[in-house]
Amino acid sequence: MSRDEVLVSCRDAALTFGRGAQAVVAVHGADLEIGTGDRLAVVGPSGSGKSSLLHLLAGLEQPTSGTVTRNPSLGPYGIGLVFQSDSLIPALNVVENAALPLVLDGRPEAEARATALASLALVDAADLADRLPEEISGGQAQRVAAARVLAQSPQLILADEPTGRLDHRTGGRVLDALLTAADHTGAALVVTTHDPAVAARLTARRTMREGRLLAPEEVS
Ligand code: ADP
Ligand code: MG
What we know:
By secondary structure, this protein is of the alpha/beta class. It contains six helices and nine strands; from the N terminus they run βββαββαααβαβαββ. It has a domain at 6-87 and 153-218: 3-Layer(aba) Sandwich (Rossmann fold), CATH 3.40.50.300. It has helices at 50-58, 94-104, 109-122, 138-151, 168-185, 196-199, and strands at residues 6-17, 24-35, 39-43, 65-70, 79-82, 156-160, 188-193, 204-209, 212-213. The strands form two sheets. A six-stranded mixed β-sheet has the order 5-6-7-3-8-9, sandwiched between helices. Strands 2-1-4 form a three-stranded antiparallel β-sheet, covered by helices on one side. The structure holds adenosine-5'-diphosphate and magnesium ion.
């Protein structure tokens, strides 16, 4: 895939939950393009529609109107997701969690484990390999989630408030891990956050307010 190729594009993409008087417009017609190499922060207060926009990008939600188009070159593991709560499987240890997408993809177990260990090392979490999720901290779990995404070599990493529940310093290390993962795989990275310090570490920022993705020049 060449540089500057568009991976996902939203054209006037809207997402409404519910109907009639109960309808909530989570995203008003949003226009957005994510290209290879992008490092984008989507910033906004709680309830502004950040997660909804990310779910549209990921294909977890279909737009109520408008379109979201993903590049056909994005394979089944082309998009790597990291959520606010780490979503590690409690019964599997850290390296098994990191290897899981590869095992599900049918790779030999030894190869999956080796790739997962290398990914854990890159996010400075190799020493956690044999621990269970309950034996590690929230920040460590988020770094393991970053390693799991890294192991699957995605073309696009979507992280929804990955630092939301962490203190500043721990959040910084999680962001380090995601940036390392993106740099190492060449993936584009989109991070939602309400923390300006987190947003400042990405190369571009877009603001959401009450479901509207503001144009860059609208932000005061
Ligand atoms: P953010 O991630 O910025 O906190 P969300 O995208 O989660 O914002 O939510 C945007 C709006 O959509 C909020 O008003 C929220 O209550 C509403 N919303 C989100 N998900 C659902 C859902 N599954 N059903 C109904 N309303 C929802
Ligand atoms: Mg959210």
